[in-house]
């Protein structure tokens, strides 16, 4: 199993990395430099990529080595900052793949099935892209017998006449405790600007091959096993949330991407819900909680302005007799949203964000909630089977949802808001634990919750719009009349939406939660 941290670092810091005392203590091996050419193979219809299998043949001088990777490990490949994948390699005679030994060498059933076609598959493989890098490798001994293989890669990924630059430091744990890997990266970050790399060279190569703009990444429910403990399930769920955030971070940092920011914020909300779900069993350290609150505020503020400028005001314009009269107000909201995106991009590119993700991943993957504890007692609730814990959480969420729905008719905006939060928590819990229950029941339950949550979210958007419109009115006194008009339209719309919420609740109420 390959377990590594992938760090993006500007090429100008090459010498700083090669001479950093943390990476080159007296007992480290001398750096070995080599030029590598990796050719990645797949079928014309990208069969291997769809099965999440990576296949490459590497040329180093006059030797050829075939490498196969599979998307296993926590969260099927990476958990926030940490990448973990099954990896197998063996020498081959030349520059094309050979599967003759695959079934004997590869111990992952899913990967073996993906390559089972053998010779028939070999004949259909074609080169799809290549990487050419200057690799500097050295072995770094750690305390307590641990060891890290450090690899500094600089070069390019090439696909036809297109290419993208590569400049990254890979820290692969070959022996020892994963916490030491994070400690190494956190120490390095104090002196050298580094950022987390969420995508492998293969993923970047396939994106280049597709020749389409990168898209925001939506959440994928974690795959849990009924044999897991509640604690193991928490690690899988929280890692899934961190990965969802990190998968969208680069788009947020580099582009004014409304959907990527939305998805990153969803990832944050899912993570916070997971932590709240386990709050009686484990606690996040106060400093980490404060940093999560900071990032949540950054993402939430920007998302609020995106919704106002991109959804709420355009909807009001369509209702108005002369929508053009609101053009100035909408442009002011667009300008504010753009300024917020720039600020959020700066935050997600900052050392503070990298430190947060490294520290959060370390806490999660080293079971930081057990730091300083004695061995767990037999009655430790975190060690109970996940299925019983999941049922308890879902039932508790369902009872809270029904209590709050009882106050919905004629209720206040605050009552609607509390119901929205309860619906969101119920939905996330059903999705987190969904793989433990019959798929049909889960889909029906989540679908009903989603419809209710979306409608309540629309009402919340109207409430948020009130606050943002007040801000615009103060900054642009000449728009006071337009702001008043929008407020009137939203007040009228809110009355109709209240009735729709009641209808959706009546449709959802008979549904049984997953059991």
The count of β-strands is: 10
Residue stretches low in confidence (pLDDT < 50, at least 5 long) are none
Tell me the major beta sheet: 8 strands, antiparallel, barrel
- The number of helices is 16
Major sheet: arrangement of strands? 1-6-4-3-2-7-8-9
Radius of gyration: 26 Å
Order of helical and strand elements: EHEHEEEEHHHEEEHEHHHHHHHHHH
Secondary-structure map:
Layout: E1 2-8, H1 14-18, E2 32-42, H2 47-50, E3 53-60, E4 63-70, E5 78-79, E6 82-91, H3 102-105, H4 109-114, H5 119-124, E7 126-141, E8 147-159, E9 162-175, H6 178-189, E10 195-196, H7 201-210, H8 230-254, H9 258-277, H10 286-319, H11 327-348, H12 351-365, H13 386-405, H14 413-432, H15 439-475, H16 480-508
Antiparallel strand pairs: 1-6, 1-9, 1-10, 2-3, 2-7, 3-4, 4-6, 5-6, 7-8, 8-9
Helix pairs in contact: 6-12, 8-9, 8-11, 8-12, 8-13, 9-10, 9-14, 10-11, 10-12, 10-15, 13-14, 14-15, 15-16
Give an overview of the whole structure:
This protein is α+β, with helices and mostly antiparallel strands and 515 residues long. The protein is 52% helix and 18% strand. The protein contains 16 helices and ten strands. The radius of gyration is 26 Å and the shape is globular.
What's the short story on this structure?
This protein is of the alpha+beta class and 515 residues long.
């Amino acid at each position: 199993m390959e377990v590594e941290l992938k760090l993006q670092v500007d090429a100008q810091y090459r010498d700083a990395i090669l001479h950093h005392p943390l990476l080159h203590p007296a007992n480290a091996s001398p750096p070995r430099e080599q030029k590598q050419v990796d050719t990645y193979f797949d079928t014309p219809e990208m069969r291997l990529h769809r099965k999440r299998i990576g296949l490459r043949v590497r040329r180093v001088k006059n030797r050829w080595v075939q490498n196969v990777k599979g998307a296993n490990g926590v969260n099927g490949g990476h958990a926030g900052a940490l990448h973990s994948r099954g990896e197998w390699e063996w020498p081959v005679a030349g520059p094309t793949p050979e599967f003759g030994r695959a079934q004997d060498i590869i111990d992952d059933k899913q990967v073996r099935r993906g390559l089972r076609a053998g010779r028939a598959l070999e004949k259909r493989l074609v080169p799809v892209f290549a990487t050419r890098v200057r690799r500097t490798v050295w072995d770094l001994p750690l305390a307590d017998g641990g060891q890290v293989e450090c690899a500094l890669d600089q070069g390019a990924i090439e696909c036809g006449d297109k290419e993208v630059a590569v400049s990254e430091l890979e820290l692969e744990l070959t022996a020892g405790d994963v916490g030491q890997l994070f400690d190494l990266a956190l120490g390095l970050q104090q002196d050298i600007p580094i950022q987390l790399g969420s995508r492998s060279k293969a993923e970047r190569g396939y994106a280049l091959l597709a020749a389409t703009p990168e898209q925001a990444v939506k959440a994928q429910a974690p795959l849990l096993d009924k044999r897991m403990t509640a604690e193991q399930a928490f690690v899988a769920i929280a890692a899934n949330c961190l990965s969802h955030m990190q998968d969208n971070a680069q788009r947020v940092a580099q582009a004014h991407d409304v959907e990527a920011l939305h998805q990153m914020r969803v990832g944050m909300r899912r993570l916070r819900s997971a932590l709240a779900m386990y709050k009686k069993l484990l606690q996040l350290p106060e400093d980490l909680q404060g940093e999560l609150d900071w990032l949540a505020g950054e993402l939430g503020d920007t998302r609020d302005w995106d919704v106002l400028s991109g959804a709420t005001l355009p909807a009001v314009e369509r209702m108005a007799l002369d929508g053009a009269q609101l053009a100035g107000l909408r442009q002011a909201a667009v300008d504010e949203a753009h300024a917020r995106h720039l600020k959020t991009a700066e935050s997600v590119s900052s050392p503070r964000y990298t430190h947060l993700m490294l520290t959060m991943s370390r806490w999660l993957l080293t079971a930081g909630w057990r730091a300083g504890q004695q061995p767990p007692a037999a009655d430790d609730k975190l060690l109970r089977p996940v299925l019983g814990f999941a049922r308890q959480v879902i039932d508790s969420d369902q009872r809270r949802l029904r209590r709050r729905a009882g106050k919905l008719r004629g209720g206040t905006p605050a009552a609607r808001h509390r119901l929205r939060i309860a619906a969101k928590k119920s939905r996330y819990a059903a999705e987190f634990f969904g793989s433990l229950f019959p798929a049909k029941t889960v889909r029906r339950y989540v679908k009903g919750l989603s419809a209710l949550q979306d409608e309540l979210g629309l009402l919340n958007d109207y409430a948020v719009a009130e606050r943002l419109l007040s801000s615009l009115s103060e900054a642009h006194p000449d728009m006071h009349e337009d702001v008043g008009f929008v407020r009137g339209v939203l007040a009228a719309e809110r009355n109709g939406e209240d009735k729709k919420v009641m209808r959706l609740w009546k449709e959802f109420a008979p549904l049984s939660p997953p059991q």
